[in-house]
Amino acid sequence: MRFRLFFPRLMLTLALLLPALPARAVEAPYESRLVRLAEILGSLHYLRNLCGEHGNKWRDEMDAILKSENPDAETRTKLIASFNRGYRSYSDVYRTCTTSAITAIDRYMKEGSALSDDIVTRFGN
Question: What is the pTM of this model?
């Protein structure tokens, strides 16, 4: 009988005294695809502007993803860094619109479309 009274009190005491472990964010199963999509959007933002499509369409698409996902700070930072990496990877190399820039645009449009479809098909509600 004493054990029944003692054990719950012991467990409660231990729970209060032990430091709480920080919760670790669980990566969404589609996060790696979303990170790649962010990089593609960054590349398209630079290349499409370079090749005549002026505006913020691709940056706005990235903003829409961030708003709809509402990721934690770590994931948000990862997505933004990926977008910026995509942008910088071409801004460091291309100063004018070239045939290879147009080829890259076409390739990224196809890959981005496939990634978007895959994310929605596999993980959308």
Answer: 0.77
